[in-house]
């Protein structure tokens, strides 16, 4: 089946067109109602009938449809629908009295007989299968096309045609007169015309759709073979349809001819263009001659001026050498303008006469740049030259040229020259490291930089354009130059401690202080608020690390020297020096603390972070010094006891070191300012306490070396009968402790307490050795009385030396006296329990040794007395009590000391 676009416009006879026109003009009504067989009626709306006077009028029937072999009259329920007819497939059967089939038909086809009831004329409608892609028809001329058009006889005239035409015209005239009665409606004429065209197109489309639907119904009937249709069409309908087809074909032929004509015209134009191109190539030599002629003409006009160019170049160079910059620039611009005037006529050809113009411009630029680089000096000596250089740079910045040359950008060169000249003056010479060189250089900058900024504001700024911001440029240039110079300094060899400290203090305080960048005389034009830090955090960390490391090495060296000087005095023939109060004295503690405190205090001038680091270093070095001090004492004592280096005044110098320790302990608080955490000095205090115990132990070992021979005969029969042994002990102890008066409190109290405790421990150790066993009650009484007497004698001795009674350990002898003085052995358990309550560290071995000293205790009594030690809860040691019996094993090992001291009760 052919597609819709293959059908030409719907053919209509004059009568049909009149009916459609009348319907379109009236704007309403319905068509297509067959009142009775053989008649076709148009039904108009009441409004349309009233306007046009058209009523129900019978019209000739177009055709009848016969379905399933039965002829039915058309009515309202089966209104006629138009069938799309392909004109290329329309043919009349032979013998019908019509022309044969049109030559447009081709290929296999199916025929359908349509029989009309009144006329019995039949038409054969052929439905050709539609190919998927139809081949293009061959080209044909106008005569052939006219010959192939089907010749159809005109159909019969429609009787009501004239009447319908009149009615339509009358209705249209009446409608138009009503619409366009008022003049303002004429402006809407185009809108009415467009609307009527749209209505006409809509009606035609509806008729075409109806015909297409009827064709589908007819084809369905042909495929099933269950329906036969007959129709009788007027000759005028077919003829009108074919006329439309012919018109479309003719228009296509005209379009083809127009396309072919346009193609031929384009070909001719292309040929003409090719001919013109060939002709233009033949004119190329002539064109070159014309160009050369124009160049020669321009050269002849400019020749007088070109002859003066060498002299002008030499004159401009003379002006540059004489530093007449403005005149030199004017002469240079005249030469450049002449060069531009010759460049365009010569087509960009460079003349040899202008070869020296580029170097001349560069020489002038260098002169301007040199003047800008010496701006500070010229502002004082020759400000006119500086102003001329600035004006040349500014005027040249606005220069435009038609030559293909790069911009000279003298303004930027001047700015760079200003910065480079300023940096060259103050930072051009590299800093030579040396003692005090950095401090001198920084002091010179402290004076020179403010003066340079003042000169820039007063002298240089008036000679330069305002947008140069000379004061700000000076401040930022000096800052960046100084910053870069310091970076180079830090990247070089490591600075000394003094240089690192000086640089930190100068950069963090002096440079930003009121003497330099923080000066009130420096106006807001300097804009120093957005300057980068002179030293970065990494630089500050680096300098602080260098300073702390160098200071630590120096402090360690000085402390070692102080210790070595004091140790050298320990072997002298003279006793230690004393102060006006009679106490042993040495300047070493003061030197140590002064070195440490001064280093901590001086760092407050720089920053808190540096102060904290130096404070931590000071505490670390003090702890290391105390360890070295203790090691030196051990070597001194070992050499003295071995006889390798006997010191004439061994004990006095030990007592002098105890005073040193006391001085350090009392003065170490200077290393704990308010901002230091409370526990920061704990390691130093622990080291001082350990040093004190070490000194006391060495002194007590010397005392013990003198007392051990005396305690070898105690207890004995001689000891029971005579007090001579203890008198010798007391005499030797008193003589040894005479030098304690040169020791300051509280160290002397500790030393006396340890001495008294050492004597008591040695006494107990002698008792536990089992050298004496009482033979009877009388000897037990004598032994008890000797213990009481010895306790009183020791108490008086140490009271005389200045030891408080509350811290003495001699009362332990009175507790042992009660154990020996007991007459009934069965009560020993009570005495042992009392002894355990006073001295919780007493053991069974100690009690057994004491029971052996009694000499009258049986095995059962011993077991009963020892069992009392285990009876009851373990007593807690008294507050502040010191261990005694635990340091006296039986048999007693070599005596050891346990510090710090405390009450033995």
TrEMBL record:
Source taxonomy: Eukaryota, Metazoa, Chordata, Craniata, Vertebrata
Biological-process GO terms, alphabetical: exocyst localization; exocytosis
Stretch list, region Disordered: 90-109, 128-149
Gene Ontology cellular-component terms listed: exocyst; transport vesicle
Role this protein plays: As part of the exocyst, may play a role in regulated exocytosis of insulin granules.
Keyword hit for Ribosomal protein: no
Keywords of this entry: Cytoplasmic vesicle, Exocytosis
Protein's name according to its UniProt entry: Exocyst complex component 3-like protein
Subunit structure: Interacts with EXOC2, EXOC4 and EXOC5; may be part of the exocyst.
GO terms for MF: SNARE binding
Source species of the chain: Eschrichtius robustus (California gray whale)
Family the UniProt entry places it in: Belongs to the SEC6 family.
Gene3D superfamilies: 1.10.357.50, Exocyst complex component Sec6, C-terminal domain
Family annotation (InterPro entries): EXOC3/Sec6, EXOC3/Sec6_C
Compartments where located: Cytoplasmic vesicle, Secretory vesicle
